[in-house]
Amino acid sequence: MSRAIWSYKHRFSVDLNIVPLELRLSAVAYIRFFFVEKRIFDQNIWSIKFFPFHANLIKVIKQKGKPAIIEKPSSEFSYYKTKLLRKRSINDGCSVQQVNGRDPTDPAFLLSTELAASLGELSLSYSVGTTPGGTDVLPWSKMTKPVLLAPLKLPSGIPLYWSVKGVTTDGNSMVRSCSLSTYDNTVPSGRIDVLYPYTSHPKRIAATIIVFDDSPLKENHTYAIGLAPGYKGNQVLDWSVFNFTKVVKHFDNIESFSRGKDGKLSVTPMKSLKTKDHEECALVCVNTGEKCISFDYEFHSETCDVHEVIEGPSADLKVSGTYKHFERIGVGNTHNFEYSFDLLHGERYYINAEVTNSLMYKSLLSSKGTIVDFTPPEPHFIGNASQDELFADKCHASILQSCEEVTWRQNHRKIVDGKDAATVYNGHHPEKETKFTLTNHFASANWRPFTDKESGISGYTWAFGTSVCRTDISDFKNPHQHLSDKRFWTYTGYARDIHLPDGKYYTTVQAINNVIHGGSLVTTVCHSTPIVVDTTPPLFKGVSDILFDEDFNIMAIYFEAEDKESFLSRIDFGLGKTKHDVEVRGYSEISYPKRENPYILITDLNITDGEPAWIRLRAVNNVELSKAGHSDDPILIDRTNPIAGEVLDGNTIGQDQTYQPENNRICASWKGFYDPESGIEEYHWGVGTFPGLDDIVAMETLSRSTKNKCSFANLAHNTTYYSVIEAKNSALNSKTIKQSSNGGNYQLT
């Protein structure tokens, strides 16, 4: 509202009153469940507020006889200009500013012109373009007044040019131009990178914040440290003031960007085009200007996407094909946070910051957090461990340790597992223990994955030695060094080009977690179960006894064999036509009987009665080396007795004598004894005073080829003496038949 005042002093003044105006769009939502109603949403969605203002624009005082006095505008007007308007471009007859204090989704500009003052009454219009005089952003639009407040969302990050045209009533026109270097409709973009995602340091965390924005940042900003991201994350350090350091470094090649990360940003790029490689894509970003602060490059399709944002709250980094993400370095605003306090194991500490630019756009940034880990990795079941201790080995516990600011705390857990453990295994068969091996030119081991709930596992090493925990055969190595990703880990280690004499060897495995700051934490598991290298066959001493049960058809074979290195795993049983083959019955495998006087039982002998066969036994050790042996004689199954022949008295073969001619000597012969299945193995001959007795001449063993026999004896007058023959067959369970003579009488006269 303007007001003119004339007085005796001829005073003229123009005052400006701006009435406060605020527009607000609010929404409230309720949910009703039966008879209960609850408010679930009540917020302002959109608002705009004008500042109240009163100021004198000009004052002219004219007194008689004195020159006119022209007073300058009041100080409130200058204050209004600096408080309400952020960017201002003034050319002759045109001025444009972006209004601050508005929501970034609803920006506005204030356009004013002095054409009306210089030309009088005229028709005004304006346009906006990306080049001077251009209309590609906004075509010519009518201005009802010389000052226009327009809430419009225009392209950001590039220079914009306003043109104001005034046309008089007689058709004359004049155009005035003004511009803004950028039109900002985004909150400050950036992120907080923690110095380390995990720490074993008991007292220190640190991070770096980097922010990019089209508009200048305010001088003071706030940050807090707590147990949650966002405004509520201030349990450790309440909101405090910090200031940015402006960094400006200029490069014109790939050195302008950080090392590429896997993935691409989840936002629409400023532009997308094809380039021959990522270095050319970097040049595209550099040539775009400081608005381009990152780019994505897909190596497969040669696609180059340039961005005006970096990874942070407004853009996530997502793995996609062969995309790599590169961030511009040497530009933006940075600040390093560092804070010391007593950290708690297992907690995740967040650094949160609220950043404000000169348009009063606010951005809340939160780090991904730093997890505190004071415990080494946890192995699988270690059984009844003979050792489980913690040591303060600093950065000397493993070759894979990553260490910065290593602490004095115990960081190395050393375990010697029990015999029933299930963490480390000898050999390369997953989760299977190999106790014996014939291979002596390489070694292998496997293990179950270790766990670390706080920081995870960064890698493993393994070693091989001649005693528990020793590494004298193969020192610690990283078995996954050649693999590009943890997804391909095999949890298996190999040591090649070595020579192992027969004997026992032991495996050791280490797991290292992901902590760097404070030093990695390490768990070492020494496997107490050895793997035995054995390149020699067992020692087989022979068959010591054979027992056969005809009723149940079961045979027991006693033997002597041993293997001091890998021990015996089984005995193979076979039957042969000779002592060198198993043509009657092929080898069958029988587990080695672990007893003091070992024997094997054959319950399915199934050979034909009367068919001779040689027993063959083969002792096999735990590395499949074997030594075979055989019985001293073949076996023959005969379930019937021999057939008896005749026993003749006297010393004449084939003749039976009724009288004995001598008193100190008695003789007999025999014939017709045989066994159709097994044959006669031997005879037993004796003499007695009654058939079947041997009270005169005790039984004497004779070969199967003997057909007669005489023996010294004291014979009594007129006494009859009887010879007895016991024929024994050649069966495994030998049988006999007895036959006596009809007697011979001795007479003195």
What key phrases describe this protein's structure?
mainly beta; Immunoglobulin-like; Hepatocyte Growth Factor; eight-stranded mixed beta sheet; disordered N terminus
Description of the molecule:
The chain is mainly beta and 749 residues long. It folds into six domains: 73 residues, no CATH class; 98 residues, Sandwich (Immunoglobulin-like); 78 residues, Hepatocyte Growth Factor (3-Layer(bba) Sandwich), CATH 3.50.4.10; 147 residues, Immunoglobulins (Immunoglobulin-like), CATH 2.60.40; 92 residues, Immunoglobulins (Immunoglobulin-like); 101 residues, Immunoglobulin-like. The protein is 3% helix and 46% strand. It has three helices and 57 strands. The strands form 14 sheets. Strands 31, 32, 34, 36, 37, 39, 40 and 41 form an eight-stranded mixed β-sheet that branches. Strands 15, 17, 18, 28, 29 and 30 form a six-stranded mixed β-sheet that branches. Strands 50, 52, 53, 55, 56 and 57 form a six-stranded mixed β-sheet that branches. A hairpin with a 7-residue loop joins strand 4 and strand 5. The protein is rod-shaped. The termini are far apart.
Concise account of the structure shown:
The protein has 749 residues and is mainly beta.
Our count of helices gives 3
Mean pLDDT: 87
Q: What top-tier CATH class of the largest domain fits best?
A: Mainly Beta
Range of helix content: under 10%
State the separation between the terminal residues, measured CA to CA: 185 Å
Beta-strand segment tally: 57
Q: At the third CATH level, what is the topology name of the largest domain? A: Immunoglobulin-like
Query: What share of residues are in beta strands?
Result: over 45%
Whole-angstrom Rg: 54 Å
